[in-house]
Amino acid sequence: MGFDKNNQDYNVLVSGGSIAGLTLTYWLHHYGFNVTLIERNDGLRLGGQNIDVKGPGWEVMQKMDLEKKLKAAHTTEKGIRFVKKDNTIAGEFPANNALSMTQEIEILRGDFVEILFEKVKDKAAFRFNTHITALQNDHTGTEVTFNNNQKEKFDLVLIAEGIGSSTRNLVFGSTVKFKYTGIYSSYFTMKKAATDNHWARWHNAVGAVVFLIRPDNHSTTRACIFFRSPERGYEKLSVGEQKDLLITKIKNVGWEADRIVDAIRESDDLYVERVSQVKMPTFYNERVAVVGDAAYCVTPLAGKGTDLAIAGAYILAGELAKNSNYTEAFQNYQDLVKPYATSVQKLPPGVPRLAYPSSKMGVVVLNGFFSLASSKFAKFLTNLFGGSKSKTKSDFQLPTY
């Protein structure tokens, strides 16, 4: 089947209303496709923590004329401080430092989703409370069965869901592999305290527990708790059971644990998940393709997940517009994105074991490393060898369509 960018009868279904799905919708509409976007939830999913936009992701946002809005929604984070049990600073790394996790453009995931939605809300048919229960391909298209038992035919189905995508599993089954990193993560919002400021604070506690406290631009504080553990299905527990698990894990470790325990009890946005990567041998099957976390989840440990989701969506739409055959378009998309995804999925040295020490001595050694790395001598060496750099600089050549 050929592609005519002026053919508004060419119907594409996008499943997933988050960053990849909304970016994909924008560019598909830009190239003339008729787009329907479905989202399982009853509205936009606006929860989540800080994400950063840089490299090819930032280039795409500039092409969408969104840079001013993204900059205006900055979380105000100046950099990261690694702090000891008494809150003294072991090491400090501002946003322009190569060792900092804080990027030039830090934005809350929910704010980003709202900005994207405002850009595309009039460019597609949106259906909430809707998900796919079955798909059937033939030479004329893909028949989709929805959760209300209605059936509809589309020329293409593009899956832009999360790491646990049910639609992806319907199409690709056991070919989807996961790499569990040995870390569980939890995220929630809590009240701002006197110790909170415009710096993110990272604290390593005995027992392979890490606290990450980050500022936002909504007069609250975003909290993350990471802990090493065998894979035990904690993500499947009820919210109440997850709260009990976290409280038991942190209640005796000191630092600001008492405050955080209270915040966990009061939280209405707690999220617990395994930190896993998605490994897929192919990103498409007949008339169906996968993009974003559903195809190549990176995890926060490796970074660049948002960057990759945005760039992947842009490339998938561009290749569909460029090529006269959808199979060729899907293959080109895979050839361009898969090497980049594979490269950014490589974890930094020492992650997770060295970065999440379980013993008191391990914590002391790690804090000593942070102190040395942020010393004046280390800063001199970093600047000498070009370690201070713009985080929006691209390390991937984005195609032009």
TrEMBL record:
The keyword Oxidoreductase applies. Residues 10-323 form the FAD-binding domain. Signal peptide: none annotated. GO terms for molecular function: monooxygenase activity. The keyword Oxidoreductase applies. SUPFAM superfamilies: FAD/NAD(P)-binding domain. It holds the Pfam family FAD_binding_3. Keywords: Monooxygenase, Oxidoreductase. InterPro entries: FAD-bd, FAD/NAD-bd_sf, FAD_aromatic-hydroxylase. This is FAD-dependent monooxygenase. It comes from Sphingobacterium oryzagri.
